[in-house]
Amino acid sequence: MQRLHLHLLSDSTGETLEMIAKAALSQFDDADVVRHFWPMVRSQQHLERILAEIAAHPGLVIFTLVNPDIRTQLETRCSTLALPCVSALDAVILALQNQLGQEAKGRPGRQHLMDEAYFERVGAIHYTIAHDDGIGWEDWEDADIVLAGVSRTSKTPTSIYLANRGYKVANIPLVIESPPPRNLFTLRKPLIVGLITAPDRLVQIRRNRLLSLNQGTETDYVDMDAVQRELKFARRMFADNDWPVIDVSRRSIEETAAAIMRLLAERDSSHDAHEPGPKPI
User: Fold this and answer.
1) Could you tell me if residue 281 is inside a domain?
2) What pLDDT, in 10s, does the model give residues 225-256?
3) Is the pLDDT at 115 greater than 60, yes or no?
4) Which of 3, 46, 259, 281 has its CA 20 to 30 A from that of 230?
5) Residue 179 has pLDDT above 70, yes or no
6) 169 and 242 fall within a common domain
7) Domain that holds residue 17
């Protein structure tokens, strides 16, 4: 298979461009791709240095550049080199302009402005880190989401991912011998979601964890019967409290988070539908 050099140029952090490239590449099996990442491209001098690297390693160029001069310079040089040069957002921006009836602002890094949403996201990350693994249960009512599950059901990474999307998340490990704080069962604001997984997969994950820590594997932590009892205990708690449950056995962190966000949106829309509307005059 021929190796592809993929050049990603952004006038901001490049986070959006990296996500687009990652999503597109996931559609191809065993692709031999070398990624060249060029963020914060905001001057023609910077672009000139990058163009030299592109000429040395020709391939596909994908960009998110709003400065017309820099963009034209890139497109012209790529045309001279006979290299494909693709704007990652043009089609979406054009469609939005047509529907909204207004021109796009064309400001580099506009999606990363330090506005109210930015500070809310930072606050969500701080809250989530401070409420990992059952810590800070006294103010769980301030959370948007509380994740519950036995050890190694991806609670922490899922929490961090959701925090980066602006959600305040707490998580609590469920241990048969140590019941969770009582206020877990009286929370009103947060959406409480139970995470479970297949017992054989859980045993393997835990075993790998112990081996990475150079610890022995002769323990109930990886004993199949003990693990099944843990999962049964968790499932019973979820059912008794009517909490939604997500099986993470074959889900990525992103897929689990997407399912949780969908549950939260459905709950909030259901609440809104039951809110009394304005009385007719």
Assistant:
1) no
2) 999 999 999 999 999 999 999 999 999 999 99
3) no
4) 259
5) yes
6) yes
7) 4-110
